[in-house]
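We modelled the chain as a single entity of 377 amino acids. Its sequence is:
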Amino acid sequence: MSKSQVPDSPPAVPVECLTVPLSPAPYSIFIGTEWWANLGATIRSSLPDMSHALVVFDSEVRGRWAEPLAEQLQTAGMRVDLVEVLSGESSKSLESLGRLWEQMRADRADRESVVIAVGGGVVGDLAGFAAATFNRGIRLVQVPTTLLAQVDSSVGGKTGINLPGAKNIVGAFWQPSLVAIDTATLSTLPPRILHSGLAEVAKYGVIADAEFFEWLEANAEALAAAEPAALRHAIAVSCQTKAAVVAEDERETTGRRAILNYGHTFGHAIEATAGSWKFLHGEAVAIGMQMAAHLAHALGRVDDAFVSRQSKLLQRLQLPVAWQEAVTEAMLQSMQSDKKVAHGKLRFVLPTKMGHVELVGDIDQALVVDAIEACRA
């Protein structure tokens, strides 16, 4: 992944540019702090043939981020339409998608239009799927405003919606033309939402980069306190790691991309059984990571020190590592809907050492139960 500076009138604070090396359409990820005033110009210079912008935004970011961006694009000569999406996972629905398609039709979206998703992962997934399917595909720009979206859902091209009882079960691979990240958006988030995103950051250290895990251990308090320099570095390394994995397995055909789901088989089951708003996604993933570590320990793949080290970092990042009310049978049933199930057998992404994980199948269900129970303390 190459690095450069943002083209054309860069802001006073340097903005790092990473390139996701996908063939035949590589794209850039811009990462900086307090550069929102230049965002419209950056999008315009990156997509010079763009004539129409559909700014699809989370209702929580209308005044602070979406409307100022729309004004910049209008000043640059764009035709701009704003489309609001209600906050929350319930917006990733067939009904919301249908409304968005109808709005795109009413706004006369065409092949020169660009969907710009401003908000968290819900908006990015929904708007991305709409872009992938309207007119058989129009361009997409991801402008994630939560840490979880910045390091995970905005990069890699997965888009989609939920069906009742099945998360992200309908969707498409649709790579963005550009990802623009301003860490200033994180200063407006409640601490719990910021900390939720740090679970995905920690995940990258476990699955692919032991040195990054060490850096996280040295900077955990700075990250939890949302210090901009620490966040920029963590976001850049996380995006680099995910982009490298995606470049090797863009459409999940080789199994390599499955490593990005470390903690997610347990985590999705936690989300599905805990009830609305009990856990944020990153919180469920953090507990899921700890369950996965216990499972790996039971299989002799990692030692006590690994399990303890991961737990300590997650807790320093203000994340939970246990769920006392876990309903084991309900979680096991939910796991059967996991996309990694093969021929009815559960498969888990499990570590062998810090910085390396593997996809493991044919695991005794009793060990899975023990891993869930180990995180009820």
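As a brief sanity check on the tokenised model: The radius of gyration is 20 Å. DSSP finds 13 helices and twelve strands in the chain.
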